[in-house]
Amino acid sequence: MGGENSPLFETQRAKGRKLHRVFATTVLVSIIWIWVYRATQQPPSTAVSGGRSWWWTGMFMAELWLGLYWVLTQSVRWNPTYRRTFKQRLSQRYEHQLPRVDIFVCTADPKIEPPMMVVSTVLSVMAYDYPPEKLSVYLSDDGGSELTFYALTQATMFSKHWLPYCRNYKIEPRSPVAYFKSASRPSNTKHDQDHTNIKKLFEEMKDRIENVMNDGRVPDELRLEHEGFTEWDSFTSPKDHAAIVQILLDQNEDAEGKSLPKLVYLAREKRPDHFHNFKAGAMNALIRISSKISNGPIILNVDCDMYSNNSDTVRDALCFFVDEEKGHEIAFVQYPQCFENVTKNEVYGGSMRVLREVDFHGLDGNGGPLYVGTGCFHRRDILLGKSFDGESSIDWKMENDHKETQENTTEELKNLASCTYEIDTEWGKEMGLKYGCPVEDVITGLSIHCRGWKSVFYNPKREAFLGVSATTLDQTLVQHKRWSEGDLLILLSKYSPAWYGLGKVNPGLIMSYLIYCLWSPSSVPTVYYSIVPSLCLLKGVPLFPAVTSGWFLPFAYIIVTITAFDYLEFLRCGGTTKGWWNDRRIWLYKRTSSYLFALLDTILGSDLSFVISSKVMDNDVQARYEKEMMEFGVSSPLTTTVATISMLNLVCFVGVVMKSMLMDKVTRGVYYETMAVHVVLCGALVVLNMPLYRALFVRKDKGKIPDSVTVKAVVLALFISTVFYFM
User: Fold this and answer.
1) Closest to 464 in 3D by CA, of 615, 316, 364, 299
2) How far is CA 228 from the centre of its chain?
3) CB 428: neighbour CB atoms within 10 A?
4) Are residues 29 and 125 in the same domain?
5) Residue 627 falls inside a structural domain
């Protein structure tokens, strides 16, 4: 059980670290061996004729970059850290002094983030196994939609029955949508009756919300149900409206007479001539508004599609903050992003399995994970700019004695969410979340680390939050384009970990941040390696040593061991063999399209944009997704690039097969001995792209690659390969 001074959490180092370090050393030796080969060996005469030595130089530059990038990736595999919490000790020592917790749920557009999904997330966090009088839930509606507000008023009424049901039967998950989707009929008679009643109330709420959504407006008779609807008029639009603050629950009781959490709706002011700073601006408005209503010292923020899947999550997080020995060092506790709709074999690599099970544990071992913008508990004072000074512990009992004031008028609260409030202030700079980047969460977390704080990654056996992953290739590529573009902007900004973090954080943590900041620049050597060796295979120009050469050994070692390591690591993280193969395909597509266009957009200075991923999927797309058929279906530069590079590899491979058929046996043997690495690379790319080729030439459904993209890809591939062949 542990005594009074027993820690509330323990830290464990991963097993097998020494063995991995030995393996990593052998890989590094092979990488250096390859660099020496490129630097000291003369390229074959066929590679330099006509002044084309750039093929060889380009390979050297690509291998130099990829080798150095691989070194960076080892920073998250050098010292992985795992955490374990002791919630019973927390309850024994602090049950009556537990701090207040403010929970922020963010949504932006009811068309792509359905209000039914949003309020289900709100209900799931209202139902935490935590004293309800110490919970306050805030919904930030950046779309300022009366539809979302209506859904929240309906959820308010339903919560009076839902929370007692969750409490009495200790159900999981506590998102009603997720619960009724997966729950079977209870065997207990009393439970079965209550289950029937609560499901009936849920279906009635769902019908009311969906009827209003189908109408596209709240009917006049329903507007009379809540005075808050007077905030909307015929001139209100998502990008032009006054601030709206509505306290829906405050010291209310549920159907059993127990307290309900506070529930607040916020739509900050939007005007066309004021830049609103996307989600970071919404979060900062929430921080200010909540400070006047509940002022919880701990803040949890979740995206509207990431519902609570574990009712103990708050208590787990508090084990880190409240720990007497180390809690004063911790600024935020980051939970992993997990997804309920990922297929068995992860057709789009949507689970981010290795990122969750490897990278973030490694980041934790280096001083703390990145803040990823959802599923994260923060200390309020640190978000407001406090630096670590060694005396940063919180007296939780004193915090618990805080008396809430009800003196703030609605107009005073609205002023905190106005467009002009932040002018000539430190908000977005030294206070709150940082502005000026699509991945504002990452630079916010980095600045916290640079002020001396640590963070913790906690990955419980039962996922804390479950969300919705991308269900089409285009969604996946667009999402990663935004992330990688934002990470590159961080690298080029004053917050670059390369210099902003220098001397302030662990060098290993700087290397870890750089892994993500360099996603988009890494597209260039990947594209080069995906194209040039295949073209040289077609032309018969060797860029790699022959099988009989001693220089062949490091290339063979790298290909075999890195592939085997990636495969075994993926399986160790709970994946499948087919899932690993799908993950490799998506890795290639992201590197050769999303990251490449992110790099180009950054160089060309395109407008800073924030893309919201749609959570709505039609039935045909859903059916194909469940069958793990890749969904192309749209014509875009990203899809065209992926298709063109894939076609280029197919043209080169088919061309080589045809050439080899015309060779005599001896010539063919010498050719394959000389071009062995080329054949392996090109062949692997062709096999990897089989689903794409089927979408180009075989499939007839709406998820196939559009004919316009097919024509572009085939024409470009034939043109490039022909020009290269005759150079």
Assistant:
1) 316
2) 34
3) 18
4) no
5) yes
Domain boundary among 425, 448, 480: 425
Higher pLDDT, 225 or 375: 375
Three-state SS at 232: coil
Same domain? For 257 and 395 the reply is: yes
3-state secondary structure at position 466: strand
What single-letter DSSP state applies at residue 99?
P
Closest among 174, 175, 115, 176 to 141, alpha carbons compared = 115
Residues annotated as catalytic are: 142, 441
Interhelix angle 676-688/523-539, nearest 10 degrees: 120
671 and 596, same structural domain?
Answer: yes
Q: Is the dihedral of CA 545, 549, 551, 555 positive or negative?
A: positive
Same domain, residue pair 287 and 392: yes
Q: Which of 371, 404, 425 is the last residue of a domain?
A: 425
Nearest to 562 by CA among 14, 60, 31: 31
458-487 pLDDT tens trace = 999 999 999 999 999 999 999 999 999 999
State which residues form the domain around 612.
Answer: 14-41+54-78+522-726
Name residues whose C-beta falls within 8 Å of residue 43's C-beta, 6 or more positions apart in sequence. 53, 55, 56, 543
Asked if 336 and 463 touch (Cβ cutoff 8 Å), the reply is yes
Residue 666 placed within a domain: yes
Give the three-state DSSP class for 618: coil
User: What does the pLDDT average to over 198-225?
Assistant: 95
* 117 and 153 fall within a common domain: yes
CB 215 within 8 A of CB 175: no
- For the CA atoms of the chain, what is the radius of gyration? 28
Binding-site residues sit at: 113, 142, 279, 303
First to last CA, the chain: 75
Closest CA to 543 of 26, 55, 172: 55
Q: Which residues are annotated as a binding site for UDP-alpha-D-glucose?
A: 113, 142
Which residues are CB-contacts of 591 (< 8 A; sequence separation ≥ 6)?
522, 523, 526, 527
Which residues, 6 or more positions from 260, have their beta carbon under 8 angstroms from its beta carbon?
Answer: 126, 132, 159, 160, 163, 249, 252, 253, 254
pLDDT digits (tens, 9 = 90+) for 330-357: 999 999 999 999 999 999 998 899 999 9
Sign of CA dihedral 232, 233, 237, 243: negative
Indicate if 570 and 605 belong to the same structural domain.
yes
The number of domains in the chain is: 2
Tokens at 327, concatenated: 């809690």
Please say whether the beta carbons of 490 and 444 come within 8 A.
no
What is the tens place of the pLDDT at every residue in 567-625?
999 999 999 999 999 999 999 999 999 999 999 999 988 654 445 555 556 788 999 99
Coil, strand or helix at 334: strand
3-state secondary structure of 106: strand
Report which secondary-structure segment, H or E, holds 533.
Answer: helix 523-539
Indicate if 570 and 698 belong to the same structural domain: yes
The angle, 0 to 180 degrees and rounded to 10, between the axes of the packed helices 707-725 and 637-661 is 50
- Cis before residue 173, ω within 30 degrees of 0? yes
Query: Do 133 and 331 form a contact (C-beta atoms < 8 A)?
Result: no
Residues 557 and 660 in one domain: yes
Q: Of 183, 12, 173, which Cα lies nearest the Cα of 84?
A: 12
Name the strand (E) or helix (H) holding 331: strand 330-334
